[in-house]
Amino acid sequence: MTYPGNSLRSLACASLVAAIAAICMTSAQVQAGGDRDVEINTLSSRANTVSGGDAVIEVRAPRYLRLSDLVVRLNGQDVTAQFTADAAGHRLTGLLTGLLLGKNQLTVSGRHHHRHQHFEQLEITNHPIHGEIFGPHQRPWVCETAASGVGAPPTSGPCVAATKYEWFYRSTGGALLPLPAGPLPADVAQTTTIDGNTVNFIVRVESGAINESIYRIAILDDPANPISNPWSAGGKKPGPGWNGKLFYHFVGGAGPGFRSGRNVATNAINISDTISTRDEPLRLGFAVAVGTRNTFGTGADEVVSAETVMMIKERFIEQYGLPKYTVGLGSSGGAIQQHLIAHNYPGLLDALTPVRNFPDVLSIATDVIDCGLLNNYFATAVNPADWPGTRQSTVTGYPVDALGRNNCVGWNAFARDWPGPTNGFDAVVPLEARYDPVTNRSGARGTLQDGYVASLGINPATGFARQPYDNIGVQYGLAALNSGDITKAEFLDLNEKVGGLDIDGNFVAARSVGDLKGIENAYRHGRVNDGENLKLPMIQYRNYVDLVADIHSFHRSAAMLERLQKKNGTTDNVARWTMPQAGTVNFMRMALLAHDEWQRNIAADTAGGSYQEKVIRNRPASLKNQCWDAAGAINDHPFDLNDTGVCNTLFPVHRDPRIAAGGPRSGDILKCQLKPVKAANYSVAFSSAELARLKSIFPKGVCDWSKRGVEQKEMKDSWLAFPRPGKAVRLGDGDDEHGHHDNDD
User: Fold this and answer.
1) Contact of 708 with 673, CB cutoff 8 Å
2) 213-221 mean pLDDT
3) DSSP three-state, residue 524
4) 399 near 406, Cβ under 8 Å?
5) 616 contacts 570 by C-beta, under 8 angstroms
6) Under a CB-based contact definition with an 8 Å cutoff, are residues 637 and 674 in contact?
7) 236 contacts: CB under 8 Å, gap ≥ 6
């Protein structure tokens, strides 16, 4: 794929990437009328987000110009020798090296013209290999290169490492082993790729540090004639082991960061979707890429994750070639990253495979933190015997497991870690660097909102990240009250005593008031996923774990679909598969095969229509919404919570505390609008004293879930960077050095 906005007639306009058409018409195009004889395209990244001093460049020329007559200059120096002629496409391509940090001018002129008479020119902005293109990284930033086997970390400065290559093979017995030097072992297994090529299962893994993240790129290769300089005339392009496509792996969790993260080379071979660990991507011939900052448990910040994807993809294209498409896959926090990268940085991923998915993390944090408050209430404010798990479940919305626990118990660790500034740190982050409310108030804070400080901004009153969590007006247990599962006295006591949190995550008697600017920024800066740009092919899959107090409950998939329906008017670009908790269906392989057919169909479609229309009409006929029972029988699974078919019976969709309080299934309201307390709005009859007490509990009113949330605004733009906390910059071609700013502070 070609990145958007890199030339006067960007090839991105012909790309199959969702939403690129909306941004591929740049200001330069407008000025030139979109019609020039010579085009310059950056193929490895956008022209203003190049990193590491090099970029793959394409120069397209009209047939009346001989390629041998073209001269390419970088900052005035002739670099034509770095390009190779492609007669069939009548173009020059090459890996351009020698870029200076900052702005560079690339020009194309005729060999017999004056050097200042250009057919075309392109400004390229080159950034360091350690990144910070989308804004400053957290500090401190612990560099874990040694633990990842790529060398000792620098004694000072950013986290960088030299490139390293390792070779592995899959044996006929199924083991993954280091490939020894010399003749190939006799037990090297073979695999047949998605294109039908049978090759040795020998994997080259490239490792290093990009964007202060440890990266791995794995590809089936021939050690006797390895891939090298594929863009040069004398280079070695990938062989039949690569199917021409890139698989990008995302890993779950949700941690505070302040570190590079660590992994090992085999993490790019054995891929875990948290249901099973398989080598299906490589077995089918995909190249595999992953970075430690694509692990949400290392740092819950999808802006850094997106930047890492962008830069590792750039490295991949430079060293291996241009993939036909890039498909993402990851579970839990890995699903969050896929959703939000496609939402905010369209074009980096062409297809998503969100496993056991959540829409995003900030919106689910509302009901997760609710769980912490409810757990505290049930443990400290009442007689536990009066609130067994089955009764708590009526308030939390979650089912109970065999031990009588509901899923708020499963969420309790995150419910305390996310709002707590001293919780959740990995041991590598020094204690002396961490926040302490008494001894080190300027230290690193581990809250969820502090991980998002670049997007949310800083509250000048506290000096800390703006906290969007709010529970003003939330009537916990409302559905249970109206259904008769709890009494009026219990409902009143619960809502009177549930309380809230202070800025350090401590329980307090007063309810929490969300920072309004932080809430606005969460929506405007794309931290809440409303479905924008998510028109690309998606295959959701999961094993059903609702009945074991596992946090990956099925209602999160329903929330994502509700948002897509609301934003895009359809969910037909999404396939959904579900199996029992102990199911063994190889969904990973099925998804990769289905994605490949889907992408091939789209690529072959020359008819008109929008990108969304192309995606939907080219969805493979065999790709249906289905569920598998314990015996392996397959049933259709319509997206209708009222459907009485087999799938909804086997795998019912439950609720969470906000839904049980009357909130929408979409779960996208951070702070509700309020309405007056009225007795007529309840299915029970309150006495005058009870109604007066209810009004005193909610003096400003109760949630009106029929309205949009407070400050729930449309996303400002895609491709945003954050040069300082709360300040958004649009990384559009044609902007000045600092981009387009708004007043978000």
Assistant:
1) yes
2) 98
3) helix
4) yes
5) yes
6) no
7) 225, 226, 227, 228, 229, 230
Residue 743 has pLDDT above 90, yes or no: no
Residue 745 is predicted with a pLDDT of 57
Selection from 276, 285, 270, 243 nearest residue 174 by Cα: 270
3-state secondary structure 562-591: HHHHHHHCCCCCEEEEEECCCCCCCHHHHH
Tell me the pairing of strands 164-170 and 120-127. unpaired
Q: How far is 220 from 200, CA to CA, in rounded Å?
A: 8
| Residue 538 phi, psi dihedral angles, 5° rounding | -135, 135
Structure tokens at 577: 């598969």
166 forms beta bridges with: 205
Query: Could you tell me the CA-to-CA distances from 72 to 84, 93, 110, 118 in Å, in that order?
Result: 12, 11, 9, 10
CA atoms within 13 A on the CB side of 555: 23
DSSP assignment string, 64-114: TS-GGGEEEEETTEE-GGG-EEETTTTEEEEEE--PPSEEEEEEEEETTS-
pLDDT digits over 635-679, tens only?
999 999 999 999 999 999 999 999 999 999 999 999 999 999 999
Q: What is the pLDDT of residue 119?
A: 86
- Other C-beta atoms closer than 10 Å to the C-beta of 582 total 8
Residue 711, helix vs strand vs coil: coil
Amino acid 366 reads T
CB 537 within 8 A of CB 352: yes
Sign of the four-CA dihedral 607, 609, 615, 617: negative
Please provide residue 616's backbone torsions phi and psi, each rounded to the nearest 5 degrees: -70, -45
- Residues whose CB is less than 8 angstroms from the CB of residue 288 and which lie 6 or more positions away in sequence, other chains included: 216, 217, 218, 219, 246, 247, 248, 249, 268, 269, 271, 281, 282
Q: Six-digit token pair at 291?
A: 């970075």
Closest CA to 504 of 449, 457, 455: 449
